[in-house]
Amino acid sequence: MSAICGIFNPSGDIDKTALDNIAKPLKHRGNRGSCKYVDKKIALLTIPFKTKTDFSEVAFNERRDIIAILDGYLLNYEELIKCLDKADIESFADLIVILYEKFGLEFVKKLDGDFAFAIWDSRNEKLILGKDISNNKQIYYSKIEGNFIFASEIKGLFKFQGIKKTIDLGSVSNFLNFGHISFPYTLFDGIRRVKPSSIMVIQKNKIYEKEFWDINFNLKLPWSEERIIDLLENSTRKRLNISDNWGLFLSGGLDSTTLLYFLDKLSADTVNTFTIGIGEDGKYGRMASEFFGTKHTDFFPSSSDIIKISPKALWFYEFPLWHVGSFMYYLTKISRNINFAFWGQGSEEIFFGRRDYVIVKKLQVLNKNTPKFMKNLFNKLIVKLPHSKLYTLSRIAFSNDSYNQYVSFREVLTDIEKNNLLSDQISSIDPLKRIKKFNNKLSKDPVKNYSYLTLRNGFLSDTFMNISQELLNPYFDKKVIEYCYAIPTEIKLKNSIFRYVLKKIMSDKLPASLLNRKPETWPMKPWFKEQKNIMYDVIDRLKKRKIIKENIYKAINPNSSHYDRKIWSLFNLEILCEVFLDNDPKNPKI
């Protein structure tokens, strides 16, 4: 995993030492030092991660007036080299330069991979930032005193003089409403991030963005089991081709075990697998390992382990979490000897892999068959219901708004709880305003919309950056996603079976014990019971930030639905604030 950062000042007044300061907190992402380019108006730096197929440093064209730096990899680099008829291309960054010079901004549509890049076009004095379709690579940016600064991690921006560490209250509202922060925002005021599948052009003092890819809901393709198998196999093969010293994060669930099947089929080497033993994941991870004969490593953290490591995990993650995200940090610890890690993120969304999708489908039918006057009556009564499964299902069933349906499933705090717990300045913020602005393309199918919103606001991988590890995700492949969204919902949820398509194609390839295992959730409730006194004390500290106004156990009924999720969300929010805003000496050294 590499890193990029830079400073652009149209007036030509750059502090040359500031670039090195930004880069200091990013050094853990690379394995070969750093290299930079500095001119009158621009300063670029990359911390490369050397692999068997690439060692991207600062790349130039022949006239040295187009410069590029890259974080990530290109899967179709061999195909692109053949099309360009160039023999002297030494890195992925070189390819970026040549493609931009030949095709302009349209070049980005030709890229297939997991990447974030920066291009300096000195002829036109413009900086171009771009990201692939996934959410693995980040580019954070801020503007201050004529400078446009960017970096792969927020902590790098905080090293630039004048950047203030203040909380964005709108982001807090987003997080406590549906468990994530919408693009382009972060938890910190004035710091934004480049959106997935888009480019950002900064020229003089103007900025504009352009999206180069999105899911096509109108795409019609013939449904074929063989086609999905071919797409997943090719997606896995492409990622193997650019990898050395790789392994698989294996939960023993259908998503990761399917990847294990393809990796075992395509590789002549024994697969290295890694499992964090949470709930039944440890048992099923071992079962999958034994079935395929992998070299397996697992670890079983306790609740106290999770609490203790939270500050360090959130230091790398840089976003609050509504779940027990620290276990991801432990995955990086037990797999630190590999350079590339395969994982199954995204499969749930594209294959409708949770019970949520079945519920949305059934409630869609109920909504369609319920008279309008009854729906209006129910909507008035719903707000008076306590937070329970009935409350959630009622909101979904009698709403025609996919945004409201999405928030109802993802909801951390109810409206009543927000009024009881949160400060007035946060509870008064409209939580849907930001999510609608970013996710403005929906279909007529509520189930696809729910999947789309979940995928678009997906998982951040920065927890893995602490050991310079590159993530490989065959499910998050453009062709795989496009084909899966073309499959009718009726097929993907046939007989009300979630993950129906994936189960069907793997039915003769995996044992029934793995194919039909029940989904396992993180044991947040028992862990909360063990650590509640510590967590309550941490959450109470949110009062001084004017985020909450009442003690959590007074404002929210402990018997309410998803009480544990509410506790973990607020706990992680305060820990993140302490790590970045306070540098609290009571926390472990970061």
Explain briefly what this protein structure is.
The protein has 590 residues and is an alpha+beta fold. Helix content is 42%, strand content 15%.
Strand content: 5-15%
Give the overall pLDDT as a whole number.
Answer: 86
Number of helices: 26
Q: Indicate the CATH topology of the largest domain.
A: Glutamine Phosphoribosylpyrophosphate, subunit 1, domain 1
Q: What is the CATH-assigned architecture of the largest domain?
A: 4-Layer Sandwich
Sheet with the most strands: spatial strand order: 2-3-1-9-8-10
Distance between the termini: 19 Å
| Level-1 CATH class name of the largest domain | Alpha Beta
CATH superfamily of the largest domain: Aminohydrolase, N-terminal nucleophile (Ntn) domain
Name the helicity range.
Answer: 40-55%
- Specify the overall morphology: globular
Low-confidence stretches: none
How does the helix and strand content classify structurally? alpha+beta
If you compute it from the alpha carbons, what radius of gyration comes out, rounded to the nearest whole angstrom? 24 Å
Q: Quaternary arrangement of the chains shown?
A: single chain
Task: Tell me the number of structural domains.
Answer: 4
Number of strands: 17
Question: Main sheet, how many strands, which sense, barrel?
Answer: 6 strands, antiparallel
